[in-house]
Amino acid sequence: MDGVLYRGDLVLPHARETLARLRAAGWAVYFATNNSSASRAEYVARLERLQLGGDLDHVVTSAFATAHYLDRLEPRPRDVFVVGGDGLREEIRAVGIGVRDPKDIPGIHPPGRAAIDGLDPAAMRAYLTGLELPPPPDTVVVGLDMHLTYAKLAEAQRAVLAGARFIASNKDRAYPVEGRLLPGAGTIVAAIEVATGRTALCIGKPEPWLFQETLNRAASLDSPGGSRDSPGGSSDRAVVIGDSTDYDIVAAHRVGAVGVLITTGLTEPGAEARASGEAVPDHVISSLDQLFALPAFAGA
User: Are the C-beta atoms of 277 and 1 separated by less than 8 Å?
Assistant: First the structure.
């Protein structure tokens, strides 16, 4: 979505026309994103505002996929600490798993001198080490957090070192917005990995879980006689359009889909030439209208 259909609130060229043409030709269009900061309902509202269509059933986010991954774990998590946005918390709560309130994070409201950057670093250290700490959560989930603080990193570190499961909704290095890139969730995940010596299990791209969840839904909702319980859904005619060889194209190939690289978002110049293995795109386009010159969309 980000970098393919829009950047921030800027709709990219041919996005609306392409979606309309695909739907008219009978394609089931799913919106899949690694961004976990918003809930699916918020994405539907955004798609409506940008006049791109879509509904709740056809939006799959890394937050949604993460929540359903947690829901299938044994033992099932009961107490989750999220470093991320409210959308990630909402999706996890929606499957009936308890999530800690961000306002209750130890150290989140430092007083006096500890709250002033550059005034007295020792004050913040003394504040954090003097806190009365609750029992650690059983699971830590990390996504894009635009209000990241040192206290959040410290609490995630404490929980993971105490044995909590360590899950990343995604590990994107950057987040494309209007006119620039911002740090992605992967920068936050990496900080906690360094702080703990543990590697997070990633649900979003390039791992297959996000697209697998999408295919499962397609098998149930849009395939005649399909079932969400069928193993892995179907990828017979699945095409992924994404802006990253390392994320979108790798994940597409891991679920058996065709990977189309579009050079409108995260794609760096020459990325397709440098790609190897699973990251090599099946096709490369520079704008969405070029999609219809590809064999999969013949006649669309």
Answer: no
Sheet with 239-242, edge to edge strand ranges:
239-242, 258-262, 283-285
Beta-carbon count within 10 A of 103 CB: 7
For helices 86-94 and 62-71, angle between their N-to-C axes, nearest 10 degrees? 40
Residues in the chain: 300
Q: Is 32 helix (H, G, I), strand (E, B) or coil?
A: strand
3-state secondary structure 186-254: HHHHHHHHHHHCCCCEECCCCCCHHHHHHHHHHHHHCCCCCCCCCCCCCCCCCEEEECCHHHHHHHHHH
User: φ and ψ at 85, to 5 degrees?
Assistant: -90, 170
Query: What is the pLDDT averaged over residues 255-266?
Result: 90
H or E, element range at 276 = none
Backbone torsions φ then ψ of 233, nearest 5 degrees: 70, -165
Average pLDDT over residues 287-294: 95
Give the span between the Cα atoms of 193 and 195, in whole angstroms: 5
Q: How far is CA 258 from CA 13, 144, 165, 278, in A?
A: 22, 27, 33, 11
pLDDT at 174 over 80: yes
The single-letter code of the amino acid at 236 is D
Report the 10 Å Cβ neighbour count for 110. 17
How wide is the angle at C-alpha 255 spanned by C-alphas 289 and 209, nearest 5°? 105
CA neighbours within 13 Å on the CB side: how many for 8? 8
Domains of the chain: 6-64+206-255+269-297 (3.40.50.1000), 75-104+134-202 (3.40.50.1000), 105-133 (no CATH)
- 239-256, pLDDT tens digit by residue? 999 998 999 999 999 999
Q: In this structure, is the dihedral angle defined by the CA atoms of residues 266, 17, 24 and 45, taken in order, positive or negative?
A: positive
